[in-house]
Amino acid sequence: MKKIILLLLIFNSFLTEAQKREVPPKPENLTFSHFIKIKLNKENGKIIYLRKSNNRPLHSNEPFNITETYINEKTDIRGVNTHTPYNKIGYLFNGYKNGLWKTTYKNKLIKTENWNNGLILGKYKVNTIEGTLIYRTDFGKEGNGKYKDYYYETGILKQEGNYENGKKEGEWCDYDKQGNLITTTYYKRGVQLKK
Q1: What is the CA radius of gyration of the chain?
Q2: Three-state SS for 14?
Q3: Host H or E run for residue 155
Q4: What phi and psi values does residue 27 have, to the nearest 5 degrees?
Q5: What are the C-alpha distances in Å from 78 to residues 28, 84, 96, 100?
Q6: What average pLDDT does the structure give for the chain?
Q7: CB 127 within 8 A of CB 133
Q8: DSSP state string for 8-47
């Protein structure tokens, strides 16, 4: 009998220690941040966003947030990650950009663009990170016009080219942070031409 009482006292002491420890919340009470690895493919001259794990087009009923990190002047597109500065926020429909897309830097709006099933159209606007307007154009309902993008910190031209029917067309130029031409690429109906 003394052994049973001693075991109960030890067990009770163990329960008391366990109760003192913080118990993690049940899974239904946890908030998870979503990190989806994506890849980009080009289909008929349009960029399509695919889930890397199963190659299925991404679709969003709520705005989708894509974070871009610039590494050696190239863009590495990943899922949501608040530690990198540029966030592109907008809707995807069957993998294609659709509707208004906003680019932000530390919650400041620096670029707005409009898309319809992966084709650019309508109003397009670029600001510096301080909010000064750098460039504005309207691609209209047909998606035709001159595209320019900038390094938002300095306002130096980063990329320029033309859109026709919502797709890249003709000569497109990329510039480094000092404004020097680094690459020239040619497109026909959104498809990059081989050199």
Answers
A1: 25
A2: helix
A3: none
A4: -55, -35
A5: 27, 10, 16, 20
A6: 77
A7: yes
A8: HHHHHHHHHHHHHSPPPPPGGG--------EEEEEETTEE
């081989």: which residue's tokens? 194
pLDDT of residue 122: 97
Question: In what order do the strands lie in the sheet containing 191-192?
Answer: 145-151, 156-164, 167-175, 181-188, 191-192
Asked if residue 77 has pLDDT above 90, the reply is: no
> Amino acid letter at 51?
R
pTM: 0.71
The CB-based long-range contact list for 181-184 (8 Å cut-off, 24+ gap) reads 182/73
Q: Which residue, chain included where needed, has tokens 């087009």?
A: 57
Q: Which residue has the tokens 């680019």?
A: 103
Q: Identify the pLDDT of residue 62.
A: 65
Q: Would the pLDDT of 166 be above 90?
A: yes
Q: Which of 30, 75, 71, 34 minimizes the C-alpha distance to 51?
A: 34
Q: Give the Cα separation of 70 and 72 in Å (integer).
A: 7
pLDDT of residue 35: 61
Question: Residue 159 gets which letter from DSSP?
Answer: E
For residue 65, the number of C-alpha atoms closer than 13 Å in the C-beta half-sphere is: 13
Alpha-carbon distance of 77 to 162, in angstroms, equals: 23
Q: Can you read off the two tokens belonging to residue 172?
A: 């497109």
53 to 16, 35, 50, 59, 146: CA distances (angstroms): 45, 12, 9, 15, 36
Rounded CA-CA distance 129/123 in Å is 19
